[in-house]
Amino acid sequence: MHGWQRVGSRNARFQQWQTLLTNRTKRQRAGRFLVQGVRPITLAAEQSWPIRELLIDGDRRLSHWAEDMIENTAAEVVALPTDLIAELGEKDQEAAPELVAVVETPPDDLSRIRLGGGFLGVAFDRPTQPGNVGTLIRSADAFGASGVIVTGHAADVYDPRAVRASTGSLFGVPTVRVPSQREVADWLDGTDVTVVGTDEYGDTDIEDYDFSAPTLIVIGNETVGMSSGWREACDRILRIPMGGIASSLNAASAGTVVLYEAARQRRRG
């Protein structure tokens, strides 16, 4: 434990970490967020995200993985008692994580997303559920998307529920927050990217649409769908053919289906 800091109470420093869990405004101001889990923390390190602090359970013997993280990460190491690390991990003491990482938030800059001939991107318009944001990022990763854009007043990409739902894919897929579709339109101006929206009343089934060209897929808000601004920005509006009595899919599920169809067509092409 030589050289490690120790926090043994709910002092001001601990309260700062707590706010990263619960307070979006303070998380934004600090430019940091909390990550837990072997896979997400490992991926954050492998993808060169700046890990500023490693918070460890100072009451237990650490695994080889945790020791390797400490050895190979240029982060300050802080030991906490089990009950406090459990609080930051949002777990019971019996399931307390041995390590929680404090990671720096990247800039919300659309240039982080690479445009090119094989571009496939997703824009999520005003999502309200952090879990849906994380799930769509995970799907974007699985089906080879270049990036995810979250527009408007939306759930936070760095909310712990979104981070957990992405299962580490957040660190592999550039995800950028912008105020509205206007910033996206300016970014795409002069490119050959086609913007396709999704709606149950769309005029073309997704399997009948050709996804081989550079494409941005727009997924609307869970309750009200796409904004009028996004509808105007779309070149085409597609629908997912459905059976049964369901009239629509969960937003993240709909995005996953469209991404799969685009990836399927591109593999065959």
Number of strands: 12
Helix-strand pattern, N to C? EHHEHEHEHEEHEHEHEEEHEH
Rg (C-alpha, Å): 20 Å
Structural class: alpha/beta
The major β-sheet equals: 7 strands, parallel
- Trace the largest sheet across and list its strands: 8-7-6-11-9-12-10
* Helix content class: 25-40%
Low-confidence stretches: none
Shape: elongated
How many distinct helices?
10
Percentage of residues in DSSP E strands? 15-25%
Describe the structure.
The protein has helices at 12-22, 24-30, 38-46, 64-72, 82-88, 130-142, 160-165, 181-188, 228-233, 251-268, and strands at residues 5-6, 32-36, 51-57, 76-80, 99-104, 120-125, 147-151, 175-178, 194-198, 204-205, 215-219, 236-239. With 269 residues, it is of the alpha/beta class. Strands 8-7-6-11-9-12-10 form a seven-stranded parallel beta sheet. The radius of gyration is 20 Å and the shape is elongated. The protein starts with a strand and ends with a helix.
